[in-house]
Amino acid sequence: MRTGAALIGLLLAVLTISVPTAAAAAETLTWTADDDITRYRSAPATAVAGATTIVFENSAATGNTTGMPHTLTFDTSTEGYNHDVTLNILAGPFDVNNGRHTATVTLTPGRYRYFCTIPGHSTMVGELTVTGGGGGEDTTAPAVTGTVTGDRDAAGDYTGSATVTVAATDGGSGVKTVEYQVDDTSWQPYTAPVVVSALGDHAVQFRATDNAGNVSTTGSVSFRVVAAPGDTTAPTVTTALTGERNATGDYLGRATATITATDTGSGVDRIEYQLDGGAWTAYTAPLVVGTAGMHMLHSRATDKAGNTSAVQMTHFTVAERPAED
């Protein structure tokens, strides 16, 4: 009997040793939901890379009193996030698990975006930041570069303004933030190219931080902004006369003067006229002259840069209409 018992014990030992066991998850992350369709009731913000147990509970115990289902879905398409975890858990208080579901996934360093796919629940969204775990944690800072663009003069200075574009890359946990600083002012989040238009010498510093907390070396670009070449060309002005004319070219009863001006630089600011030596007057509409006799009309235009055209002179005569028989 002892021999048989020993044999059974040996077989049990062999069977126990030969059955593989799954590696335990390094951490457990729990999301919960309730009656609110605008947010998850609770959600983790950070995690460590590696095997992870995901728990999603949407039950009476977490505050769901209506039976409303929710999902916990990991985004696999939005640019800028990790896409290596496919997870879509549908949970409700009355499902077979009473609203509590688990899944095992492997997280990698970077950022994951999660959301609820139920129509009308689109604001239930968040981010999970994952840092390196164990001996493989991310200790390498991001790389950051800056580029200056804009119109330049012969001396290489930027005319009118300069635009600084910052780019950062990180092969580990991923870039978390990019910041910039203009001329020793306070650091600001970088969200779009920075336009510097103040005249003078400038230095723009920039840095990046990854999701593991590593900060890059501060980069810098220096440049000078000078005034853009000014508009020195005056407008052109013309005057056109219309009306009924007699055989000698005089205008019968009245003449209408239409003044126009063009400027391809800064644009026309104002048009003025002077009739028969009177005061200069702002031109706003065609001018009707009905007084019989010889007339002299002067016109001029000024652009938005302050350039004024040469004065144009127009001579014409208004004659009285002949008496009708």
UniProtKB/TrEMBL annotation:
InterPro entries: BlueCu_1, BlueCu_1_BS, Cupredoxin, Ig-like_fold, Ig-like_OmpL47-like, Ig_E-set. Keywords: Copper, Electron transport, Metal-binding, Signal, Transport. The keyword Signal applies. GO terms for biological process: carbohydrate metabolic process. Residues 48-130 form the Blue (type 1) copper domain. It comes from Actinoplanes utahensis. It comes from the Bacteria. One of its GO terms (molecular function) is electron transfer activity. This is Copper-binding protein. Residues 1-25 form the signal peptide. Pfam families: Copper-bind (PF00127).
